[in-house]
Design brief:
- This is Molybdate-binding periplasmic protein.
- This protein is of the alpha/beta class.
- Helices cover 42% and strands 22% of the residues.
- The relative contact order is 0.21.
- The chain starts with a helix and ends in a 5-residue tail after the last helix.
- It folds into two domains: 113 residues, D-Maltodextrin-Binding Protein, domain 2 (3-Layer(aba) Sandwich); 84 residues, D-Maltodextrin-Binding Protein, domain 2 (3-Layer(aba) Sandwich), CATH 3.40.190.
- Helix 2 packs antiparallel against helix 10.
- It has a five-stranded mixed β-sheet, sandwiched between helices.
- Strand 1, helix 2 and strand 2 form a beta-alpha-beta unit.
């Protein structure tokens, strides 16, 4: 009887580890690749990743107020570092999973003033918005286009604005437009590197497995296909 009980415990434990669910907070720029990564993660490990998308700043605010995330994939390094400093994340778990790139869609000459609005993410909460402001400033166009700026709550909404009218230009994540033709990949020297860090919020089996998978060659291959640097 004891042997049978031990076997049942082992089987139940194995099932729990194999079939865990992990809640992952993900920066909006990573919406497309995270779908493929989550799918591959489930096929490889049996774990199900539940994805919540948003701007890095808003996701961090949710974590600060007790949101039940287990992993945080930010679009910067600042918020994961703050999460550790504020004891909201596991010390020593932070690493850079990707380096983002900025792109313009459609590709136009900003000097010609042939557009009605310029869509960028909110630079206060979205790292890609900060990079967009840096780019416009470095190119000498910020003061010229300032009155035409419209701000997306996150990079996903920024892209939606750019797609809503042929007269709206967007400065968005390269991963969002990687398969489109009329784009300009903005030179990386025009803005600070968009190093995107991941951090472990809770020490669960699913969360640890997800963090490990994110470092795998399989995940890196997906990232490369979407234009991210390592």
């Amino acid at each position: 009887m004891k042997a049978l009980f031990a076997l049942v415990v082992v089987l139940l434990t194995s099932f729990e580890v194999w079939g865990a669910t992990v809640h992952v907070a993900v920066a909006s720029n990573f919406a497309a690749p995270i779908k493929q990564i989550a799918k591959s993660f489930q096929e490889e490990t049996g774990h199900l990743a539940i994805i919540s998308l948003g701007s890095t700043g808003k996701l961090y605010a949710q974590i600060l107020h007790g949101a039940p995330y287990e992993v945080f994939l930010a679009a910067d390094q600042k918020r994961p570092e703050m999460a550790i400093e504020n004891k909201l994340a596991i010390a020593g778990s932070r690493f850079t999973y990707a380096t983002g790139k900025l792109a313009m869609i459609p590709h136009i000459d900003l000097a010609k003033d042939e557009f009605s609005k310029l869509s960028i993410a909110n630079p206060k909460t979205a790292p890609y918005g900060k990079a967009a402001v840096q780019t416009l400033t470095a190119m000498g166009f910020y003061d010229k286009v300032k009155a035409k700026l419209i701000f997306g709550e996150n990079i996903a909404q920024t892209f939606q604005f750019a797609q809503s009218s042929s007269k709206i230009v967007g400065l968005v994540a390269l991963s969002q437009v990687i398969n489109k033709k009329d784009i300009w990949v903005i030179p990386e020297q025009l803005y600070d590197p968009i190093a995107q860090d991941a951090v472990l919020i809770k020490q669960t089996a699913g969360a640890r497995a997800f963090m490990s998978f994110l470092k795998s060659d399989q995940a890196k291959s997906i990232l490369k296909n979407f234009g991210y640097g390592m």
